[in-house]
Each structure stands twice: as C-alpha cells, then as structure tokens.
Amino acid sequence: MHSTLQFGRFNYPLTGEHARARVMGILNVTPDSFSDGGQHHSLEFAISHAEEMIRDGVDIIDVGGESSRPGADPLPLEQELQRVMPVLYALRDQGPAISVDTYKPQVMREAIIAGVDMINDINGFRAPGAIEAVRDSDCALCIMHMQKDPQQMQLAPQYGDVVAEVIAFLRERIETLTAAGIDPRRICVDPGFGFGKTLEHNYVLLRSTARIITELQMPLLAGLSRKSMVGGITGKPVEQRMAGSLGGALAAVAQGAAIVRVHDVAETVDALKVWQAGINR
Ligand code: 9MG
C-alpha cells in the first residue's frame, strides 16, 4: 500500500498517525433531487445542500448528474454537462475536495478543467477515451466494479466466487490504468455494493473488505448508504436507513476502508470520530 492517496489538490495519508477514514457526501443533481426541476433551482438547491455538508464536516463532495439506480436510463452528454458543471465551478473553492460521479470521458475532461479532485467512475474507466481523459491530470480515480450496466445489473446477478471475481476485475483495471502511465498513488478501488449483486453478494463483499485491500494494496471506497443491502438486513424503507448505513460504514472502516460515500454526513462524521477515539491504534 502506498503511504498517501493523491487527491488533486489534496494528499490523504493512508498510514501513520494522520491517517483516518474520509467522509464523501453524496450530492445528486438530478431532477428528483430538487423541487421543480428547473435549472436555477437545481443549482441553488445543490449549493445549499453542499453548504450543509460542509458545516457537518464533509471531506469530499461527490457531484453526480446521472442516476445510477437499478433500471435508470442513461443521460445524454449535454444534459449531464448542464447539470454538473455549474455545481462543480460553484463548489470548487469552498474547502472540501470535489469529486464528479461520471463514466463519460467528455464530462471527465470538462470536470478536470473545472478543477475537480477525483473522478468517480462506476464503469471503472472502461469507456473508450476514459483513460486518456484522466491520464494527464493529478486527480484521484475511483475504479468501481459493476456487473452489466444500471439497466440490466439487478436482473439476475451471478458469480462463481464474487470476491475473487471483483478482485480480478479491479486488478485488471489497475493494471490497465497504470500501464497507460497513471500513477498508482492516484487510484482507489470500490467493490460497487448494489451494482449487479444480490444481498448475499453484497455482504460477502462487505465482510471481505480487508481481504480486497490486502490483495490489491489499494485504498478502498465503500458506498452502501441507504442502499437495499441496508434495507435487506433492517427491513426498513429507504428514508429510515440512516442507522443501518452507519453500521455498514463502520464495518467497512473497521476493516480499513479509506473513504465512505454517504448521504448522512453529520451522523457519519460523529460515528467515525467516536469509533476512532475508542479503538486501539
Ligand atoms: C455513484 N455511486 C453510487 N453508488 C456508488 C458506490 O457504491 N460507489 C461509488 N464509487 N460510486 C457510487
């Protein structure tokens, strides 16, 4: 494992006394995430949500314009740019690191010009031109595993050995990115909870967080906030999954996850502070 994660303008220690898990707050700029669907209101809503996350102690804000929920349709490039670019420019100098959640190379290029610190690609930089789009920047790259695509992924996910297959996929992507000249200190990996996985697959992967980190020697990002895997254990609907999501985030961090991607920033920041204070280092 490298001792730091290069994160655009930031450099996160991964080992030693200054290492701690970072909280990534989710900022969806999708029509269902603001009141009237209008462009102006969406920007205002996004900024005020981001300001709340900043007050709550967020480390990274992950801005996404296209829904990746199971069954979601892809968003045309121009619409995605119209949704995310004003938000990226508005947030760029507010303090936290900024990430953009996209798999489209053209969005990656524009976001890098705007100064983002991370590209979070649920497609693992497999789109033609994705690697070239990010290669010459210094932003961090999150490589996520997904079986099929958001429209197909939850139809009938199947694996022989889910942990081995996710590790093999991530290893191949790390090798492809580094062979293209990308510094491995910019890379983090993500098992992709809920992306082409059954409840059982998700928990086998969550319980294997430490193994994934050890085998790949890369920092790991865990995103399970409010997902069906939380509802599958608690029996709670999406609006009542905060406590369950905190439990999942702590399970990942206890095994070495470097970043947790969450909706509930204030609660996660507090939970991690108490957990950190209460463990033997
Ligand atoms: C965009 N997005 C939705 N869920 C995610 C997850 O679990 N990880 C990452 N990296 N991105 C996600």
Measured distance between first and last alpha carbons: 18 Å
Number of helices: 10
Unreliable spans are none
Question: What is the strand tally?
Answer: 10
What does the largest sheet look like? 8 strands, parallel
Widest β-sheet, arrangement of strands: 8-7-6-5-4-3-10-9
Helix content: 40-55%
Mean pLDDT across all amino acids? 95
List the helices and strands and how they pair.
Layout: E1 4-7, E2 10-13, E3 22-28, H1 39-55, E4 60-64, H2 77-91, E5 97-101, H3 105-114, E6 118-121, H4 130-135, E7 140-144, H5 162-179, E8 187-190, H6 199-207, H7 209-216, E9 221-222, H8 228-234, H9 242-254, E10 259-262, H10 265-278
Parallel strand pairs: 3-4, 3-10, 4-5, 5-6, 6-7, 7-8, 9-10
Antiparallel strand pairs: 1-2
Bound molecules: 9-methylguanine.
Structure, explained:
It is a single chain. This protein is an alpha/beta fold and 281 residues long. The protein contains 10 helices and 10 strands. The protein has helices at residues 39-55, 77-91, 105-114, 130-135, 162-179, 199-207, 209-216, 228-234, 242-254, 265-278, and strands at residues 4-7, 10-13, 22-28, 60-64, 97-101, 118-121, 140-144, 187-190, 221-222, 259-262. The strands form 2 sheets. An 8-stranded parallel sheet has the order 8-7-6-5-4-3-10-9. A two-stranded antiparallel ribbon has the order 1-2. Helix 2 (77-91) packs parallel to helix 3 (105-114). The radius of gyration is 17 Å and the shape is globular. The model has no long low-confidence stretch (mean pLDDT 95). The chain binds 9-methylguanine (9MG). 9-methylguanine is lined by residues 64, 68, 101, 120, 122, 142, 144, 190, 192-193, 221, 223, 261.
